[in-house]
Amino acid sequence: MGLEMSQKAINAFKKLDPDDFKILEAIERGIRAYEHVPIKIISLISGFPEDEVVFRLDKLNKLELILRWGGSYLGFELNSNGHDCLALNTLVCANVIEAIGMPIGVGKESDVYEALTPESETVVIKFHRLGRTSFRQTRRLRSYTAGRKHLSWLLESQIAARREYVALKRIYPVISSVPEPLGQNRHCVVMELIEGEELSIILEIEEPNAILTEIIEIVKTIYRSCEIIHADLSEFNILVTPEYNTIIIDWPQWANKKHPNAEAMLKRDINNVLTFFQKRFEIYEDLIKVQNFIQRG
Ligand SMILES: Nc1ncnc2c1ncn2[C@@H]1O[C@H](COP(=O)(O)OP(=O)(O)OP(=O)(O)O)[C@@H](O)[C@H]1O
Ligand SMILES: [Mg+2]
């Protein structure tokens, strides 16, 4: 479902001109004050006359970027495709990316695509899509969004993208075992493309011991030097490159070392990795020993 949705946004994106983006932006701004944004307000914010606004809203509606609400008054809001287009446009205008390419991964809470930079390098753009599954999060954020569901998923996705970017920015200069962060806007993060395979799909490897040792070293450096715990570490969030470097991805839920549950989160991260290596490669390492090494050794 996720992929299909981003694909629509990507197709529509190519058909938009700068004035269409001004209308989308006006709706994005107007929605802070209105349940859905009336044409008059869109006209006011964008500076376009109302008939021009109506014409462009019709185009945006056909491209499935906005939602049209009848009822007590006619108003508009952006759907997730509309938000995707705004984020893409900002990243293109900032020369972070130039074009978007093929899908490379669909996670539980994101869509990941290849993108091209103005220097013709292939990079990754991750669209965060939170809030449809996590009830706890939604409840916590409800006060910010006055119970408006459509805003809370967006806010959560934006928070997740910012958090992931902050983590990468803090870790990458210390140890390049995470993708290099390249840019961030709204619910999107742009980062280095890692040529590698998810550890979870690797059935045989020459020196699994060396890989496990490297993962533990990376977790230790990130814990000790960056004071960061991944908090969702598993074989699904570790990529192994053809040179057998290991790269840890998927950072929105990271926690600070000083978090009250830090120790439990660190322990769970380590346990996930050790359990995987035990089951898949029959390598046994003691959880407490590894934990001690990471925290103190
Ligand atoms: N920088 C990257 N380079 C190459 N592939 C990537 C990169 N980032 C993500 N991917 C691919 O996309 C998939 C999904 O990305 P990621 O793990 O970051 O999010 P997620 O899986 O949605 O999060 P969650 O684990 O909560 O479901 C990854 O498993 C990986 O295959
Ligand atoms: Mg993942």
What would you note in describing this structure?
The protein is an alpha+beta fold and 297 residues long. The protein folds into three domains: 2-82, Arc Repressor Mutant, subunit A (Orthogonal Bundle), CATH 1.10.10.10; 94-192, Phosphorylase Kinase, domain 1; 197-295, Transferase(Phosphotransferase), domain 1, CATH 1.10.510.10. The chain has ten helices and twelve strands. The chain has helices at residues 2-13, 18-30, 39-46, 50-62, 80-93, 135-145, 149-171, 208-225, 262-281, 287-295, and strands spanning 66-69, 75-78, 99-106, 110-116, 122-128, 181-185, 188-192, 197-198, 228-229, 238-240, 246-248, 255-256. The strands form four sheets. The protein has a five-stranded antiparallel beta sheet, sandwiched between helices. A three-stranded antiparallel beta sheet has the order 8-10-11, covered by helices on one side. Helix 3 crosses helix 4 (50-62) and helix 6 crosses helix 7. Bound molecules: adenosine-5'-triphosphate (ATP) and magnesium ion. The site of magnesium ion has 4 residues, from loops.
